[in-house]
Amino acid sequence: MTAAPQSTGRELTGPPTDGISNIRFSNHSDNLLVSSWDKSVRLYDASANALRGEFMHGGAVLDCCFHDDSSGFTACADHTVRRLVFNYGREDILGRHDAPVRCVEYSYATGQVITGSWDKTLKCWDPRGASGQERSLIGTYTQPERVYSLSLVGNRLVVATAGRHVNVYDLRNMSQPEQRRESSLKYQTRCVRCYPNGTGYALSSVEGRVAMEFFDLSEAGQSKKYAFKCHRKSEAGRDIVYPVNAIAFHPIYGTFATGGCDGYVNVWDGNNKKRLYQYPKYPTSIAALSFSRDGRLLAVASSYTYEEGDKPHEPDAIFVRSVNEVEVKPKPKVLPNPGT
Amino acid sequence: MSNGQSPFLQMESACGSLLHELQIIWDEIGESDAERERMLLELEQECLEIYRRKVDRANTSRAQLRQSIADAEAELAAICSTMGERPLHIRQSDQIPGSLKAELGAILPKIEELRKRKYDRKNQFTEVLEQIQSLESEIYGSSENTSTDTVVDETDLSLRKLEELHRELQELHKEKSERLKQVLDHMNSLNSLCSVLGLDFKQIVSEVHPSLGETEGSKDISSDTIEQLEVAILRLRKLKLQRMQRLQDLAASLLELWNLMDTPIEEQQIFQKATCNLVASEDEITDPDMLSMNYINYVEAEVSRLEELKASKMKEIVLKKKSELEDICRKMHLIPESDSAMDIAIDAIESGAVDAAYVLEKIELQIAEVKEEALSRKEILEKVEKWIAACEEESWLEEYNRDENRYNAGRGTHLNLKRAEKARVLVSKLPAMVDALTSKTTAWQRDRGVVFTYDGTCLLSMLEEFTTLRQEKDLERKKQRDQKKLQGQLLAEQEVLYGSKPSPMKNQSMKKGPGLSSSGASNRSLSFNGAMPQTPKPDILPSAKTTPNTPHNVKKNERVNLDNRRDEGRTGLESSSIPAKQHSLNIMNACETESPKTRKPFTPISSIIDSSKSNATYNSEDPNEKSNETFQKALPNINTPFTTHSKIISAMEEENQTPRTRPSTPSTVSDSMQTAMTPAPPAVLPRNDKPTEVAEEIEYSFEERRAGFVLSTAHLENTLQVL
């Protein structure tokens, strides 16, 4: 796997021993938080290629996010939401759901932790109320279906669930969704990510397609939305479609990368509707993607996502590649103002 | 000896006196004789002891001396043997065996001397060996630079060996000079090659070894360098041969072109250098830059210029020949065959697809053929000309006859009269002429087996037509004559009745000048009443138009295809606004879809489904066999397989599901998934679905399936209550 380090990027040493559920760069450094099905959460220094810390949980870890550079949160299949303090190697349980917790996000705007679970609820937590679930839990919000993906931008929260529901919340008023939508795509939602400029979100499905949506409900606003096909392979006139597991927006240019079960990472310019770049094929499905805070690095989790059940597969690996500007810079228009 | 005696004697007397003293003491003491005897014996024994000790010591020192002499001799022998000299046998050389000390004293300086000699010799060896080594490293590459101090074989320092080494050294010197010479030779040849090829000698040489590029300092002469030099020479020679070949080819074409086009000498002079080497062998080309890329390109440019010139001239010639051919054809009233083909050929010359010479040859051939044919046609053609002239005259005569004022006196009237007279004779000969022509033509046709054409028309049919026309005309004339007669009778009768006669009608339009009716196709055709076809002019315009048009159209089509392809293969996002068109799509698919409510694929269910089982059932089913009735049942099964990747979806349905306004043809592929893919109604959210209805439809993400997460009824009820 390390045979082509230049094309796929530098492979981190000591990767998780089982499927990688998510990877995230810190907002303050090149630290990379990795959650995995091997019940571990690992903290890497991506630029130094060093493992900085490791936490073991009671179940598979389905998601993780940073709080600040020294602490983070995890969503665990044992129904718990945990808080990790990296410096002291300490972890405590923030609270519990009634089913495995699928995703976790930390809102810098409100200082809350938001978790989505297969128990069809969304929960908001105050991480400062360190002791006791009763104090840290702010609210529970029922969702139409099991939560599959969450994304935050500013005060907006987009929740994608099973059954292709998409709920858009305003974090300041969580009593009911601001918008109730249905996915424009006809198949199960895999991932939802908000545009960095806060005007909309991209949503990917298991059927090789990504929809670009806008919050603005006016006709003019909605006329901009579209969907496109990707992560497909044409063979003898038939298309093989792959699930699109991951979307990551470039923090500076607003372009985005998608990763699919075909093992490819594509970089797109949503404004100009162009594909900017395709990285060489990774050994197996792309489970997660994350750009570093300055967009200079792209972490790629190449890890079998269980799309075809239990079967032999390539070992799980994390690649960190330096991103060339030409790969992510919007092409025809000079305006680097995405989504507007 | 005498010196040693006195102390000995003294000591003896001292001993005697001491004995005497002892006797006196004993006497005084009154020692018994036995006692005295014993004491004396004791004394004697002690003395003996002392003697023996001394003797032993002397003995050992003698042995040591002998030992060192032997050692020295051994060393001497060793040194001698290493130096390859005859061993000195000291004891044999001086027969007088002196004392041991003298012997040792004699040997030691010799050893000293030999040692010194050995040291000198060793230095000599070292020196030579060092030289050898440095030369070797120079020649065989500096691989063994590390062993700086030379190891001299201490066991053999003979002069013979030294000589040997010297010889070796000399050989190495010789080899070095040879190599140097070789290197210089190589460099010389490289230099000449470079100058001929216009390459940078210094750079090439430096590439081989940096020391070679420098003008001063020693050159590297290692085998590696020589080998590389040889390789470089070989490479350059190959290049030279290539270029020479090229230049000679170019020169040959140059000469040919000059020859063809009579290029002036001044122009040729510039390239004299290139052409004079046309048959030169490789080593005859020595002029600097003779084979440089610049020069070759220069010559090549000239050749291409001349070739272009030649091509244009060729084209000119072709065109000239073509016009010549056309001219002959026109003269012979033949239709130049396949005119458009010729145009195509000329186009081809212009585009360079066809050799002009080939076309020229073809045209020449055609000309020859046409000329040959013309010869055979000549006789008939002359007759035809005569006939046509006669016909013209006839028509003129006819017109002339129609002119009522023809007998009015005026200028040129007499000429017309004369002409009319001649014409009448001619006209009378016409039928005979036609007959003769017909027979001649038929004879000709029989000979050749080809129809005789005149300006593209069959001459026989022309003649036939002419005769029938003539007959008709005769008939008409006759009729006219009869009528005239009748009229004349009527007039005469009227005259008789009224005594007057109408003046003859003066028809202005009928009046024609003699020059006007002289000749001309229009006149002729008029006379034949259109029976004689006009020369079919080669329809250049349309043919010229159509030939380039076809490729043009093709190209256009190709471009369209390309556009389509690009459309399909573009990397851009295939976009369309989803919501606006969903409805229309729905309507389009409505023929085969059921009410949207029953087909909401992603609604929660109350019963647990073994997804893997349903998966299996789905896979085992052939989608092509599925009909519309079974489709609703199949739907829940469809859901689960979609969580597996690499689901194959036909291109057809792909199109279908893209929310585009493009009309879809839904029924071609009977894949059941197609229907499943029609978009669900956008407005309604599945909130209050009855669990029974929804029971079969459940979806799980990969993660849920991996975690073995299954929705429990409790969960469902719970959520339903909440909802």
TrEMBL record, chain A:
<dbReference type="GO" id="GO:0007059">
    <property type="term" value="P:chromosome segregation"/>
</dbReference>
<dbReference type="GO" id="GO:0051301">
    <property type="term" value="P:cell division"/>
</dbReference>
<feature type="compositionally biased region" description="Polar residues">
    <location>
        <begin position="1"/>
        <end position="10"/>
    </location>
</feature>
<dbReference type="GO" id="GO:0009524">
    <property type="term" value="C:phragmoplast"/>
</dbReference>
<dbReference type="GO" id="GO:0005634">
    <property type="term" value="C:nucleus"/>
</dbReference>
<keyword id="KW-0853">WD repeat</keyword>
<dbReference type="InterPro" id="IPR001680">
    <property type="entry name" value="WD40_rpt"/>
</dbReference>
<dbReference type="InterPro" id="IPR015943">
    <property type="entry name" value="WD40/YVTN_repeat-like_dom_sf"/>
</dbReference>
<feature type="repeat" description="WD">
    <location>
        <begin position="94"/>
        <end position="126"/>
    </location>
</feature>
<feature type="region of interest" description="Disordered">
    <location>
        <begin position="1"/>
        <end position="20"/>
    </location>
</feature>
<feature type="repeat" description="WD">
    <location>
        <begin position="244"/>
        <end position="278"/>
    </location>
</feature>
<keyword id="KW-0131">Cell cycle</keyword>
<dbReference type="Pfam" id="PF00400">
    <property type="entry name" value="WD40"/>
</dbReference>
<keyword id="KW-0469">Meiosis</keyword>
<comment type="similarity">
    <text>Belongs to the WD repeat BUB3 family.</text>
</comment>
<keyword id="KW-0132">Cell division</keyword>
<keyword id="KW-0498">Mitosis</keyword>
<dbReference type="GO" id="GO:0000776">
    <property type="term" value="C:kinetochore"/>
</dbReference>
<keyword id="KW-0158">Chromosome</keyword>
<dbReference type="InterPro" id="IPR036322">
    <property type="entry name" value="WD40_repeat_dom_sf"/>
</dbReference>
<dbReference type="GO" id="GO:0005819">
    <property type="term" value="C:spindle"/>
</dbReference>
<keyword id="KW-0137">Centromere</keyword>
From TrEMBL, chain B:
<keyword id="KW-0206">Cytoskeleton</keyword>
<feature type="compositionally biased region" description="Polar residues">
    <location>
        <begin position="604"/>
        <end position="621"/>
    </location>
</feature>
<feature type="compositionally biased region" description="Low complexity">
    <location>
        <begin position="658"/>
        <end position="668"/>
    </location>
</feature>
<comment type="similarity">
    <text>Belongs to the MAP65/ASE1 family.</text>
</comment>
<feature type="region of interest" description="Disordered">
    <location>
        <begin position="493"/>
        <end position="628"/>
    </location>
</feature>
<feature type="coiled-coil region">
    <location>
        <begin position="48"/>
        <end position="75"/>
    </location>
</feature>
<keyword id="KW-0539">Nucleus</keyword>
<keyword id="KW-0597">Phosphoprotein</keyword>
<feature type="compositionally biased region" description="Basic and acidic residues">
    <location>
        <begin position="555"/>
        <end position="571"/>
    </location>
</feature>
<dbReference type="InterPro" id="IPR007145">
    <property type="entry name" value="MAP65_Ase1_PRC1"/>
</dbReference>
<dbReference type="GO" id="GO:0005634">
    <property type="term" value="C:nucleus"/>
</dbReference>
<dbReference type="Pfam" id="PF03999">
    <property type="entry name" value="MAP65_ASE1"/>
</dbReference>
<feature type="compositionally biased region" description="Polar residues">
    <location>
        <begin position="573"/>
        <end position="587"/>
    </location>
</feature>
<protein>
    <submittedName>
        <fullName>65-kDa microtubule-associated protein 3</fullName>
    </submittedName>
</protein>
<keyword id="KW-0175">Coiled coil</keyword>
<feature type="compositionally biased region" description="Low complexity">
    <location>
        <begin position="515"/>
        <end position="527"/>
    </location>
</feature>
<feature type="region of interest" description="Disordered">
    <location>
        <begin position="653"/>
        <end position="690"/>
    </location>
</feature>
<feature type="coiled-coil region">
    <location>
        <begin position="152"/>
        <end position="182"/>
    </location>
</feature>
<keyword id="KW-0493">Microtubule</keyword>
<keyword id="KW-0963">Cytoplasm</keyword>
<dbReference type="GO" id="GO:0005874">
    <property type="term" value="C:microtubule"/>
</dbReference>
